[in-house]
Amino acid sequence: CRKFLFLYFLNIFKKQLYCMKIFQLTFLLLACYSCIAQKTEAYYDFYWKPCPAENASYYSTVEKTDSGWLRHDYYIQARRLQMQALYKDEACDIPNGNCNYYYANGIPSSIGKMIGRKQEGICVSYHYNGMISDSALFHNGEIVSNRFRWHSNGYMSDSIARVNDSMHVQVGWFDDGSPAYAGYLLYGKQTGKWKYFHRNGQLSSTELYKEGKVINVEYFDENAAKLTDTSGVNREAQFKGGETAWRKYLEKKLHWPVNLQFKTSGYVTIGVSFVIDENGKVTDA
Question: Rounded to whole angstroms, what are the CA distances from 48 to 45, 55, 166?
Fold first, then answer.
């Protein structure tokens, strides 16, 4: 009788253990399925338009976390991270945490926090060569105290210092350290008299602003003589020789990445970032 009862309860225990294992396995499979279902993947072309994988410049993943939707974007050709950011929504329209961007060479482009499309806390940006380009403390998208920016060669490009809650003073320099401009900002917009300088230190212009708009301006040449003909002063930046010369410049300067392979007969998009200085010269390309 004892032996029968022992075998009877042992059989019940085995069945319970079997059911428990089945339950654990089922729960594990459901958990894995849930994780997979909470992560999406997508491919984008150079202009961030959705496209087939073979024509893509960027690969993106979005994953649901306890803190929100975490998005990673990658450079496909460089096989490096392009962006890592936390969003409030699955569509990744509303930033809600750290938003870090990177150049294709792996160097950070900008590091900081975004809350509802507005910068928050200390935000820092960098040039392509790794030199710091911008640093400021923000609250609700507004500069709290001072802001400093630098040229790619390490010289300071400008600074914005807080005078009071509504007023800031801004000073700028050329990439050789000589003064470039100075004036006041009222609620983030240029106000009052601003002065601009040539590289030789002579006054270039005096401009009177109201709510960010110019209401009066005077121009001077590099010898401090006042200019009467200002038709060539305020105009769109243009490469010398026009678009034809610009294309020739690009064809001469471009270099294909090492070991580049064309897997399809489609097209290649090349992005070039650059700065045109006050003399029309291409810099930081």
Answer: 5, 12, 37
